[in-house]
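Most newcomers find our protein records easier to grasp once they have seen one. A record pairs a protein's sequence with a compact description of its fold. An example says more than a description, so a record of this kind follows:
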Amino acid sequence: MKRASFLFVLITAFSVAACSTVDGGTPPSLAKRPYEGRFDVPVRAVPVTPPGPPAADLSQRLQRWEADAAKGQSEFSDERAVATRAVAAASGAAVGSEAWVVAQQAISRMIAARAPSTAALADLDRLYLDRSDAESFDGMPEIFELRQRLAAMVDGQDEVIDSLTAALK
């Protein structure tokens, strides 16, 4: 106990000594130093020109990708009807049975039919990233808008594929 109280007194003495000044004068001022606040300057507005319209060749590529995606969606929808019937016919069938294999093949044809949609989205993604890296922003709103629509289309196709695949298990 004596040892603990001795340590307490020692620590307290050092703490009090640390708070005092060397020359016994006043403690240092807490006023702002000359170097403090050097970065407190107002931010200047930097004029940014809005992106311009897409170039003619870019507009043509966007139209082609949109047409490719529409073609892929149409072919996907056609194959979806066939795959849905095949999966319904294979309901309750054993894995590896004739009906199950036919349903798997129908799903595979449906996945292959959507290739123009996924290829158009991949090309659009590559263009979007390349133009972002190059800081070439003309036509970016159009690219982004088309990319959003194609991504939503492909996501919808993914949901159909996942639901039909899950129905076969």
